[in-house]
Amino acid sequence: MIRKTIILDLYTDEPAGLGVPPYINTWPRLVAGAIWMENKEVDIRYYTIDEVRRDMGSFIRHAEASDILVVIGSVEVPGKYIGGRPGTIDEAERILMLITRPLKILVGPAARYGFGSGGGAIASSRNTLAKIFDEMIVGDPEIFFSELMRYGFEKADPRKTRINYELADKAFVKGAKIIMMHPNHGKNLVVEIETYRGCPRYISGGCSFCIEPRWGKPIQRSPRSIIEEVEALYRYGARHIRLGRQPDILVYGSKEIGDKEFPKPNPEILEKLFYGIRNVAPGLRILHIDNVNPGTIVHHPRESLEALKTIINYHSPGDVAALGIESFDEKVVKTNNLKVYPDDAVKAIEIINRVGRIRGWNGLPHLLPGINLLYGLPGETKETYRINYDYLKTIYDKNLLVRRINIRQVTILENTPLWLRMDMVKNILRRHKGLFKTYRHRIMSELDRKFLEKIVPPGTILDYLYVEKHIRNLSIARMPGSYPITVKIPYIIALWKIISARIRSIAAKSVTGDPIGA
Ligand code: SF4
Description:
Blueprint: E1 4-13, E2 23-24, H1 26-38, E3 43-48, H2 49-54, H3 56-64, E4 68-75, H4 89-97, E5 103-107, H5 109-113, H6 126-130, E6 135-136, H7 141-151, H8 166-174, E7 190-194, E8 196-197, E9 219-220, H9 223-235, E10 240-245, H10 267-280, E11 286-289, E12 291-292, H11 294-299, H12 301-314, E13 319-326, H13 330-335, H14 342-356, E14 367-375, H15 382-397, E15 404-409, H16 417-420, H17 422-431, H18 433-455, E16 461-471, E17 474-478, E18 486-489, E19 498-506, E20 510-516
Parallel strand pairs: 1-3, 1-4, 2-7, 4-5, 5-6, 7-10, 10-11, 12-13, 13-14, 14-15, 18-20
Antiparallel strand pairs: 8-9, 16-17, 16-19, 17-18, 19-20
Helix pairs in contact: 1-7, 1-8, 8-9, 9-10, 10-12, 12-14, 15-18
Bound molecules: iron/sulfur cluster.
């Protein structure tokens, strides 16, 4: 009989879905929801890894009093984080060695694809993880935990995956309450929402490095169930929502999803979803999106434009459509079955700029593209670095706005085509190590700053910034939401104060500002 459960969130960062503070991902909500669905009396405690680092004693005490310990990880698409430091597998192992009583269960991308820990790395294989955990949930957590509660540990199936959202929808609503235990609750917490799972490009195999198409045919949630979840989250205090857990928000609700590699957007369904969310959560401060497939925009420019306009009607400004362009080198695009060729990628950026660059209430353009570039892929040569740089420069010279350029090295994950070409990828990563560093620095110092200068020229006033951190004598403030601009204030302001700031100067990845009225 399960009376007490403890959840340890090492944080997750996936191609679709972020769970590093200030974000909370879907995993802890699904686990808690599935347990509370079966027995609402179960005492569930949620800890982030940063909380455990601060007070290991309290965590261990609660863990030893629990029947199950659920560990959630890992970082499959690594980034740089201000809000928290993801836990590694070594760290998790050290903590878990101190805990004897509860069953140890691994949930999240780590259980399915191994434990990613940084770009240019190979995820630790699931065989290694099997020595640390009693069970690894390769399937969906709401199914496993619901079965565990009903039939016991021996009979719960860790491999079952959902074929529709019936159970998950209920778990999402029941588990919404867990957000109140997140350390960022009541402050800048952003709740990541899932709208569908799987990539429509599974038809062609998808991109070589990506885990999303491995789900097979995508399944979608109904607007009504997403709205009900947001209503529950709002009731428990969520004020910042991101519809980020899907490969491409533009095609949510498309009738062609599952049949076409590049389905046609369905702006009416998006209207229904966004209108419904605003209706049940009228005091929402931030409503953002994340990934957009540039291939959708070039295949369906008219419908995409309508879909983008619909989003802009309801969302909050400062929003970012992250475009996984990955490479502007045609050879790399072809070898890895990427979604878009370089000139088409530029077209997609132009189309987003057409509707997105108007400024909104918080001083930021409404919706700008972000560019993701990935290095280490098969087909990459030294020339790739020059080609990518030249395309970025062309985009800048065309006076297009780009919120940020995200440059990463590929992580080789189990169950992806890259796993089979591991030696080749390792070789490319090794050979181009220096080149990667040089170009990354060049892009950051030459282009990032210039793009940022266009978005927030000195004198711009930015509103609704949370003071999140102090670094030496600086206060770091950001808006909650998608890829927020880091504003450095040159003196100490109380943590979690909400401020406005006038931008004074621009650096590559951040700006310096003077607070107004603080
Ligand atoms: S388009 Fe490529 S990167 Fe995006 S989800 Fe699909 S397979 Fe993954």
